[in-house]
Automatic annotation (TrEMBL):
GO molecular function: oxidoreductase activity
Domain NADP-dependent oxidoreductase residue range list: 61-367
Coiled-coil ranges per UniProt: none
Classification of source organism: Bacteria, Pseudomonadati, Bacteroidota, Flavobacteriia, Flavobacteriales
Family annotation (Gene3D superfamilies): NADP-dependent oxidoreductase domain
Top-level taxon: Bacteria
Pfam families xrefs: Aldo_ket_red
Stored InterPro entries: AKR (IPR020471), NAD(P)_OxRdtase_dom_sf (IPR036812), NADP_OxRdtase_dom (IPR023210), TAT_signal (IPR006311)
Stated name of the protein: L-fucose dehydrogenase
Species whose genome carries this gene: Flavobacterium akiainvivens
Gene Ontology CC: cytosol
């Protein structure tokens, strides 16, 4: 019998159900890295969400973000990308986040080039769903540099999600995914704007149910949203049973109030964890002349950054290290995932997590009202 897209996923699903008993695909909870931790999962029952089984949490405080490997911000050659992966691995990084969107498949191909030879139990990987790729020789996009060869269309249906997962596995060349995020279903997505609410309804009836089923079948360990605003994540907590949110651009040294006051407490109540995306504000906090993705540099952010830099210099603190440790400090945060372009950045960012930062530095940032008083800061 020929293997069509649909029965390929069906086969995987049957295999994964068996893996719930015998962990052959590396996709059962106990097939994971030794320090993996789990908390009770909440599933819908009579209109409310009741704790029933164990919820997965990424066991690595720092991971590697895959935007730069997709030629985000600048073009990078394959050799440098492979060296960045090797550098991350050698430094000790074992959590990798990517997306079909990052370079229209390029980031997944590059990560997979490195990871496909590794034992799946040795690392954690997340990718995303919501956009399907199709061949287009001439397509260009301002976010992604270099030749793309693919274009994209949105699909948040159950079928679209299954196809996306299958496409990602094939691009990555690995046997299983750990986490799947529903990507960029958010009012800041320029393709959607206010229409994100309509896409959300499709995802609520399609993607969210399909991913919950994949988790129940043991195909994936966890799912959530990967978004740059808090509304869609808050909404998802109302209507579904996510495990983890990739909250990007919302929790950094220079901007963290909404996550801190709204999303984090709501997640804590439900034992949902957070992965922090864009912890370096897309480069600013690592000394780059760039703040996030729209090409703008808001004056209030730049003023805050200048004051922080002065205080960091006075305390002999490396601001990049402070930025990474700050984002990993809250209890609800499972991991922070700086984007990494080179082996050197990988080594530096991993080392940042154990850099000594005096308590007086954090105290001064709070005294000067540069960070929120109630923000958790790293313990020495
Ligand atoms: N909606 C979503 O789901 C979403 C949105 C955004 C991000 N994310 C995830 O979060 C990850 C991180 O976000 P991001 O990559 O956009 O931004 P980021 O982590 O805040 O910043 C990454 C950039 O900072 C620079 N950098 C990193 N380490 C450095 C070092 N040691 N020294 C000097 N410069 C350094 C690099 O700039 P250069 O490239 O210029 O060298 C790198 O590309 C992404 O890769 C992605 O996995 C998800």
């Amino acid at each position: 019998m020929s293997t069509t897209r649909r029965n390929f996923i069906h086969t995987l699903t049957k295999g994964a159900a068996a893996a719930a008993i015998t962990p052959v695909l590396g996709s059962s909870l106990d097939g994971l890295a030794p320090e993996s931790s789990v908390t009770p999962i909440i599933t819908e029952s009579a209109g409310s969400f009741e704790p029933t089984k164990l919820r997965y949490r990424v066991p690595h405080k720092i991971g590697m973000g895959g935007v730069a490997l997709g030629n985000g911000f600048a073009e990078t050659d394959d050799t440098t990308a492979l060296q960045a992966m090797q550098g991350a691995w050698d430094a000790g990084i074992r959590y990798f986040d990517t997306s079909p969107w990052y370079g229209l498949g390029l980031s997944e191909r590059r990560m997979g080039n490195f990871l496909h030879g590794k034992d799946k139990k040795e690392y954690v990987i997340s990718t995303k769903v919501g956009r399907l790729m199709y061949p287009d020789a001439d397509f260009t996009h301002p976010l992604w540099k270099g030749r793309l060869n693919f274009n994209y269309k949105y699909d948040y249906t159950a079928d679209g999600v299954r196809r996306s997962v299958e496409d990602s596995l094939l691009r990555l060349g690995i046997p299983a995914l750990d986490i799947v995020f529903i990507h960029d279903l958010s009012p800041d997505n320029g393709d959607m704007k206010d229409k994100w609410v309509e896409y959300f309804k499709v995802a609520q009836n399609g993607a969210m149910k399909a991913l919950t089923k994949m988790r129940e079948e043991g195909l994936i360990k966890a799912w959530g949203l990967g978004v740059n605003t808090i509304e869609p994540a808050m909404q998802t907590l109302e209507v579904a049973d996510p495990d983890v949110f990739l909250s990007a651009t919302q929790y950094s040294l220079v901007k963290h109030k909404d996550d801190l006051e709204v999303l984090f407490p709501a997640c804590e109540k439900r034992d949902v964890s957070i992965i922090v995306g864009a912890p370096l504000a897309a480069g600013l906090l690592a000394g780059k002349d760039r703040y996030l993705y729209a090409g703008e540099k808001p004056k209030d952010v730049m003023d805050k950054y200048a004051k922080m830099k002065k205080i960091a210099t006075a305390h002999k603190v490396d601001l990049r290290s402070a930025a990474l440790q700050f984002t990993a400090a809250p209890k609800v945060v499972a991991s922070t995932i700086p984007g990494i372009r080179t082996a050197q950045q990988a080594a530096e960012n991993y080392a940042s997590m154990s850099a000594k930062i005096p308590v007086d530095f954090w105290a001064e940032l709070k005294k000067e009202k540069l960070i929120e008083e109630r923000a958790e800061v790293p313990k020495v």
